[in-house]
Amino acid sequence: MNNIINVKNNDITMAVKDINKLRLSNKNKWLFIEVDGLKEKVLIKGFGTWLQIFKTVDGRHLGDGCMDQSVSAYKKELTNGLSTANK
After folding, report:
1. How far apart, in whole angstroms, are the C-alpha atoms of residue 57 and residue 34?
2. What is the per-residue pLDDT across 37-85, written as a single tens digit (0 to 9) for each?
3. φ and ψ at 28, to 5 degrees?
């Protein structure tokens, strides 16, 4: 079973930085992340810059699931999705 990593931050910019640091320190591994501190809790399953699952706990999808996107596109997708979850 995979461990879920909790990112607690209500600042979207800092949450994106924390998630990217986790990506960099866990290369070639699946990441299971729960983002808490926004208006809605967010669940992420990703590998590298691929966000396979990116949704709120109630099932609202926040991203498009692009595989092997650039790091800047990855960060933009995280920022846009987390912003949506914080409205």
Report:
1. 9
2. 999 999 999 999 999 999 999 999 998 878 889 999 999 999 999 999 9
3. 60, 30
